[in-house]
Amino acid sequence: MRLEFLMCGSPTDAFWSQAAMFRVGLDALGGAYASARQALCLGAPGEQSIPDRWRPWFERIEVQWTDEAEYRERGGHAQNSALYGMSDSSADLSIICDADTLLLRPLPDEFLERSTAAPAVSGVIAHYPPPLSAYPGTPVRSLAGADQLWDALSEEILGRPIVRPYGYTLLKGSVRAGERCPFYVNHGFIAGPPGSIAALGDQVQQILPQVRGILDNDFCYQLAIPYALERAGIDHHVLPMRFNYPLDPVCDRLYPREVCDIRVAHYLRPELFDRHRIFAETEAFHRFMTLPLVESNEVFRDAVRRLTDGRFPFPE
Fold it and tell me: What is the pTM of this model?
């Protein structure tokens, strides 16, 4: 099984540290994970050297840079656009993931078998409805809520309604009848055969101007995904929370059985520790190691302790 993990971001100390820790986690799992390709797409005003501090961990991490002119014109959208094109056709499974994720356990065999047997894309439904605020200076359409947003996007891109069978995952138990979404997935974990990921990326690029014409914000790429799959005729599979588990007490309360089987931890919430510092700064790491954590946060911290033996893993 040939796996690849694709990420995009900016060349900051926080990003280097998160990507390096992700590599540490892959190597610790051994087998197909230790041999997996980890590739980063970075955007900056100009191509930069990997800082000496991070070089030992980046011997087995592939780094690509976006075109400088494109980055100057589009900013962070440049690396988002290039992300899907990084998939390697020789891989059995491509996985797009955020840098602030960590693979705690091997992915289940049944998931790997299903994901490589058919050209479908898999992901975990997003936590909440998409924010309706737009970038300053961009066109703003009057939208009363997410339902109107989905309707507007459907009309603009497909010319017909899109099926919305899913509930937002962290609104469970409090969702009004109309609060449903299509395959609107959290961008922290999206998996599929390389051909499906590349085809999805091609369609995303084609419809992105239409999405941004209705709502232009940090979520426009996620908003494009269900429509891109629909236009490409690619099937999708909804994954349980364990594949992209946010370290969030709300999630712990709604999905208590998932806490004991987290496969991918997404440490995106800032309330208890700073995801940008815990693997980049010795003091922040040791403070994280001694925090009184519970439930999913404790599961994540215990996994980090096993990987590092409780010692700060990177030089400063």
Answer: 0.95
